[in-house]
Amino acid sequence: MSVSPPSTARRSLSLFLFPVCASALALVMAPLASAQVAPASAAASTLAGQASDWLYEGSDIPRDEGWRFGVLPNGLRYAVRNNGVPPGQVSIRVRMDVGSMFETDSERGFAHLLEHLTFRGSLHIPDGETKRIWQRFGVTFGSDSNAQTTPTQTVYQLDLPSVTPTTLDESMKLLSGMVREPRITDAAVTAERGVVLSELREQDGPQKRIADATSAHLFAGQLLGERSPIGTTAALGAANANSVQAFHDRWYRPDRAVVVMVGDGDPAQFAALIGKYFGDWKEAGANPAQPDFGKPDPSQPVAKEIVEANQPLALTLAMIRPWKKRVDTVENTRRLYLEYLAQALVNRRLENRARSGGSYLVATVSQDYVSRSADVTSAEIVPLGDWKAALADVRGVIADAVQTPPSQADIDREANEIEAFLRKELENAPNEPGSRLADDMVRAVDIGETVTSPKGQVDMFAAIRASATPQVMLDISRAIFAAPVTRLVLTTPTPIEGGDKALLAALAAPVTARDDRVAAAKVDFSQLPALGQPGTIASETPLPGLRVQRLEFANGVTALVADNKVEPGKVRVNVRFGSGNRSVAGNAPNLLWTGDYALMASGVGPWGQNELDQATNGRQIQMGFDIDDDAFEMTAESNPADLRDQLRLMATKLAAPRWDASPIERLRVGLLTGFDLNDATPNAVLDRNLRGWLAGGDTRWAPPSRAAIEGLTPAAFRAFWEPRLKSGPIEVQIFGDLESVDYKQLLAESFGALAPRQPLAPPGGQSVAFAQHNAKPFVAYHTGDKGQAAAMIAWPTSGGIDNMRDARAMDVLAAIFNDRLFDRLRAEQGASYGPVVDSHWPTGFEKSGGYLLVGSLLAPKDVNRLYSVADEIAADLVARPVSADELARNAGPIREQVARATTGNLYWMYLLEGATRDPRYIKAAMAIEDDVTNISAADIQRLARQYLVPGRKWSLAVLPKGMTLAQAAALDGGAIGGGK
């Protein structure tokens, strides 16, 4: 059975420290009409083949009764299910049992190339027209319609909104034609080869080289070690229509296909449609033999040094066992959960050592069944200087785990986390989007497991955790940390003395068991400092047109509360305080960049990170952090039972913050460790710098320098954040299942009990500049592959809350621009894998901060091409109104996205941020659907004329270090533009 234990990510840093909800909101807005599919007729149902519980053959896993399964006479299997979340949507997945490990040496990359070709359309539809048809149905390309290729499967995905019998029938017809008879011509292969090579080029860089070399070493002698789905330039370069067609005919067969349909309709009708459009599919020849993926080879080298300049030290220690095909049973599920528990026990110990100042920045273990090829337990380690000490320390923690049983208290702590996650899934089950259910089914088929209901998961785990005794967990730990094959990889910026032999010697060195277990301590919420007497409500009013209450307390705290059953058992909390980016001037140094990790990690009252973990163990209590333009935000996803302590903890963070030094030092070291990655690829350069460049160097978005990071101290951190935690207004949003709680009293006891807050004087950061127009592109450089580059163009627009209709029309203009750019740069020329056009219209600044950004990762020779194409598109949008069809094809998917999003709490919370103090946000929220619906071609042309002014645009090229614009232009024989 497919097991989804809770993530341990919140207990550890990301590796290098780099920095809509689909529910039915019947109680916030009037419910949307559900366009359900008509019931199946008796005649149509005969097309659905034979009912069969093929997923559960040989299994005793409790069956999820929501699914209906069947097999067509040609061998195609299907799974269908009714699900009304979001209303009117049907999610379709077509899984083909073929991936990159099914290719021959001369076909490397063909499975992925075929996926691209398939999405261009079928023999029966003009090239590219499928995308346009689905756009007219409200489908957003890339999110609602997409595909993926892995080593073991190719999956085609379609989420069809506002479905009708006609659109669903037509979509199944299109999808069937694409999969069965894709348009494989030499012209199409040439075009998509360019796109795939662009994707390969964009992926290329130190991280990909490290990943490829690591896979080749870990899985030496197996197909997985040499069969990346992206393929090779040699094999892709030799691909033609005949060779790709042969690959398709060999592997695309009905008996290798699974079709999944989940959505707002009758499962019998879904099954009938599958039979109608896939039932007459006939295979071409005999079913080919399944490839032998191979087994881990003990004779291959154990250690490998990978030298990559400017990359931080990193270690991978892997214990590799042969993959075994197992029938998915309750006993198999027990093993999976116990294996996860064993990992969680070790990860908590590793994190405890890192927090207390160990030899590594971060270390985590994970155990995975990889691509039906290997059962792998791996430790990923980022050393702090001495890699040998870091390796020894991690091996020591593992040695302790396989020598000494854990305490029952330790086991219970990790089991509590899993149980809380599973109960949360059970509570959210009525609100589970159909797209996730469809994806979970495809994942289960791929790994040879089953699915069960959330209730089945909870019940099974209750029995499983009862069996998790210290001795049982010791036995499981010994099993997952033992293997016939061990591999060690060190990534290093410079060669180490002794090379691979030094790695082997370190691995052979004796291990001293390290007892880094977290000491148990009695922690409860009574230990938090008192906040004061419960506050009184000064005013209480409903928001017009919404089932949302506005509360204001005597101390000035305001709140928006929506009590609804949109997400049963779930309560979302967002605490907005202070003035966010507006709290600092745009030309002054700041420490905004430290808040994302270190502010919440620095503790609350008497509690540091370990105490916080213990206090919240097994409970739905969190503290996320974000910075908005006009406020700082603490966020949480809680439940009615934990809401009192959730609000208490967040209020105490503001009233009595703790200032532990270790998270600040860990952040400092982590940022320095990854600092040299900042110019390793064009994408890294853009991720770090683009927002600051667009804002004309505004320090609120400009990245910190190495010197600034090196100079970070706990005292400076506290001096910057302490006044921001205690000053400025507080707005609390609580949306969710509040029927069983007295939310007014809970607010009064927490935020209402705080002392009145003083305003934080604005330092002049109330507006945002834009980069100055440049006649020639500004040039930045990366240190990566010479074949990689990026090009960007941006025009300043506006911002603020007064004219949100124009903001929404700019989203449509961006979609039209993006659609044209996609057709020109990708579909026709194959110059870019993913060109992007984005409209940014911040509401936190009046009439400033907005821009329309056009850009793409490219080859250096294509930089000029992007500028030329973008200029042509912009000029045409200014000169001519868009056609009714083009407007509908691009506004329709946005309208559908809005309609789906407005059925969820999270979206309304976002729209209503700031509404307790500025009623314009309420008006803007209520108008969003009308605004998007009523956008006209005249609006698009008016905004293009207003903002796409050549004399105001700013352009950027990111080139390989040492290359000039002239040299890049010469590669394509043209002059670099981007100015005027």
TrEMBL record:
Alphabetic keyword roster: Hydrolase, Metalloprotease, Protease, Signal
Residue ranges occupied by any Peptidase M16 N-terminal domain in the UniProt entry: 89-221
Start and end residues of each Peptidase M16 C-terminal domain: 240-416, 712-889
Quote the InterPro entries the UniProt record gives: Metalloenz_LuxS/M16, MPP/UQCRC_Complex, Pept_M16_N, Pept_M16_Zn_BS, Peptidase_M16_C
Highest taxon of the lineage: Bacteria
Name of one Pfam family that matches? Peptidase_M16_C
Kindly give the PANTHER family that the UniProt entry links to this protein: METALLOPROTEASE, MITOCHONDRIAL-PROCESSING PEPTIDASE SUBUNIT ALPHA
A single GO molecular-function term is:
metal ion binding
* Signal sequence interval, chain numbering: 1-35
What does this protein need as cofactor? Zn(2+)
Q: Which organism is it from?
A: Sphingopyxis terrae subsp. ummariensis
Which lineage do the record's taxonomy fields give for this organism? Bacteria, Pseudomonadati, Pseudomonadota, Alphaproteobacteria, Sphingomonadales
- What is the name listed in the Swiss-Prot or TrEMBL entry for this protein? Zinc protease
Single biological process term from Gene Ontology: proteolysis
* Membership in a protein family: Belongs to the peptidase M16 family.
